[in-house]
Amino acid sequence: MDRDLMVGKLDRGLYTQQKVEILTALRKLGEKLTADDEAFLSANAGAILSQFEKVSTDLGSGDKVLALASFEVEKTKK
Fold first, then answer.
1. Taking CA 26 as the corner, what is the angle to CA 77 and CA 12, rounded to the nearest 5 degrees?
2. In the prediction, which pLDDT does 46 show?
3. How far apart are CA 14 and CA 22, in angstroms?
4. Which of 7, 23, 26, 45 has a 20 to 30 A CA-CA distance from 61?
C-alpha cells in the first residue's frame, strides 16, 4: 500500500482508510503494532475506525474481521 501511494496508484484518502482498517484488524487479532503504526492510528482513526470497529464487533470473529478487511482491499483494487 505504501508503494502504491508513493507511485500514485492509490489516493491518499483511500490509503488512510485501508491502513486504518488493516491495522485495527491486526490489533484485534492480537498483533503487536509498531510505534509508527500506533501513531498512525491515533492520528487517523476518527470516523473510519468507529465504523470499522462497529462492523467488526457485529461480526464477532477475528477471522471474519480479517476477511472483511481483505475483501475491502481487494474491492478497491478492481
1. 40
2. 76
3. 12
4. 45
The C-alpha cell of 71 is what? 475483501
Nine-digit cell string for 60:
464477532
What is the C-alpha to C-alpha distance for residues 68 and 65, in angstroms, rounded to an integer? 5
What are the tens digits of pLDDT across the range 48-57? 656 666 655 5
Listed in sequence order, the DSSP H helices in the chain are 2-6, 12-28, 35-44, 46-59, 62-77
* pLDDT for residue 38 is more than 60: yes
Residue among 11, 7, 6 at smallest CA distance from 77: 11
Per the listing, cell 461480526 goes with 59
What burial class does residue 47 get, using C-beta atoms within 10 Å of its C-beta: 0-12 exposed, 13-18 middle, 19+ buried? Answer: exposed
Q: How confident is residue 32, by pLDDT bands cut at 50, 70 and 90?
A: very high
